[in-house]
């Protein structure tokens, strides 16, 4: 790994051995059955014995853009609930990911990354975050442990600060952390929430959503703060999104991944038709990708339609995997001038009923 030395991180910690200890203790994807020890370490000995009553509740998954919230929710649920991309602001609405276990039903609410409000779109996205927080039983605050906290992390902390709900940190991207900075980063993130409750710090778990490390340990911690409750959803349901919405999102995901600069932010996808074909058994799906300017239209379609074809082919593969049947996908492109600044268009594209 290339060594990047920033002024914040340049002070080399003198307890490297200690850091290694933390890493071997927590970054550990083997099943070593010490989840209950970790629970006891954070919540006290009495938390070892989780109640035998069934638990259920909403966990708001919040954080700044691009820390891996959606990847983490998908990994925890074991299904692709939310689309993921290396570009920020991929998630635009609250998305429910349902995890049903014999002892509990955990309702993870994935949210857009907390960021500055520029358009009506950003305003709606931040409202989604605040509503998820207002309706939750506990908060899963996801951060990128490979860096020290930034102003964006402080802004997330501020949004949580007024809430009287348990907070758990997922210190994500642990697979990329430089061990020398691990402890100081952990302490810095802990401090974000520390100020709220005088003597206690929020419990945390180092995770790697992409590698799947420590997810069971994180779940064990979430179970402790989950209230008692019944199964709200059928055990085989893993999201609240309709097939139409999921298909539109899978198309948007490929468009985001294949395009660059400002275009990914200007994209919206609407399903025009979703029908079962009588012959051949394939589903017929027609969708329109909206962009904000004519110049973006050219980029999206590409030379001789190459780009649109590439997006369509990749999206179709994922849609077929999701629906479990073959799909005929037709994509259209339309310009809707400055739609992100137009509340009506935002509500229409995000499927929000006012
Ligand atoms: N190395 C590494 N990358 C991750 C991890 N979790 C997420 N990512 C990547 O970070 C990027 C943003 O992920 P996403 O889930 O869309 O972030 P969100 O904006 O917080 O929902 C994607 O490229 C993911 O593959 C992780 O634990 N380790
Ligand atoms: Mg996301």
Explain what you see.
- The protein is of the alpha/beta class and 354 residues long.
- The protein has 2 domains: 16-225, Rossmann fold (3-Layer(aba) Sandwich), CATH 3.40.50.300; 243-349, GMP Synthetase, Chain A, domain 3.
- It contains 11 helices and 9 strands.
- It has helices at 16-26, 35-43, 69-77, 120-134, 151-161, 179-194, 215-225, 243-258, 294-301, 306-323, 343-349, and strands spanning 55-62, 95-101, 104-110, 138-144, 167-172, 204-206, 268-276, 283-291, 327-335.
- The strands form 2 sheets. A 6-stranded mixed beta sheet has the order 2-3-1-4-5-6, with helices on both faces. A 3-stranded mixed beta sheet has the order 7-8-9.
- The protein starts with 15 loop residues before the first helix and ends in a 5-residue tail after the last helix.
- The chain binds guanosine-5'-diphosphate and magnesium ion.
- Guanosine-5'-diphosphate binds at residues 63, 65-71, 84-86, 90-91, 113, 172-173, 175-176, 208-210.
């Amino acid at each position: 790994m290339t060594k990047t030395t920033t002024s914040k991180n340049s002070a080399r910690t003198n307890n490297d051995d200690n850091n290694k200890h933390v890493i071997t203790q927590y970054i550990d994807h083997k099943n070593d059955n010490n989840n209950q020890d970790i629970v006891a370490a954070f919540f006290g000995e009495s938390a070892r014995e989780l109640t035998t009553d069934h638990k259920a509740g909403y966990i708001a998954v919040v954080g700044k853009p691009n820390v891996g919230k959606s990847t983490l929710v998908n990994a925890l649920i074991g299904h692709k609930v939310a689309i993921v991309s290396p570009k920020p602001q991929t998630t635009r609405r609250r998305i429910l990911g349902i995890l049903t276990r014999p002892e509990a039903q955990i309702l993870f609410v994935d949210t857009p990354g907390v960021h500055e409000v520029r358009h009506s779109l950003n305003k709606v996205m931040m409202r989604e975050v605040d509503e998820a927080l207002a309706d939750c039983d506990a908060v899963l605050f996801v951060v990128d442990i490979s860096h020290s906290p930034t102003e964006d992390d402080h802004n997330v902390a501020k949004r949580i600060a007024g809430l009287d709900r348990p907070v758990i940190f997922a210190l994500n991207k642990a697979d990329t952390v430089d061990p020398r900075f691990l402890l100081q980063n952990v302490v810095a993130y802990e401090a974000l929430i520390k100020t709220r409750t005088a003597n206690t710090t929020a419990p945390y778990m180092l995770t790697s959503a992409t590698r799947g490390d420590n997810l069971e340990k994180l779940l064990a911690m979430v179970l402790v703060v989950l209230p008692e409750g019944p199964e709200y959803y059928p055990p085989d349901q893993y999201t609240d999104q309709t097939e139409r919405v999921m298909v539109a999102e899978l198309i948007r995901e490929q468009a985001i991944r294949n395009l660059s600069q400002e275009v990914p932010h200007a994209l919206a996808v609407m399903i025009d038709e979703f029908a079962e074909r009588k012959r051949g058994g394939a589903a017929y799906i027609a969708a329109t990708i909206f962009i904000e300017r004519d110049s973006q239209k050219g980029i999206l379609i590409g030379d001789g339609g190459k780009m649109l074809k590439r997006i369509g082919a990749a999206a179709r593969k994922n849609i077929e995997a999701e629906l479990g049947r073959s799909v005929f996908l037709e994509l259209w492109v339309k310009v809707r001038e400055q739609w992100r600044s137009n509340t009506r268009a935002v509500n229409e594209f995000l499927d929000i009923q006012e």
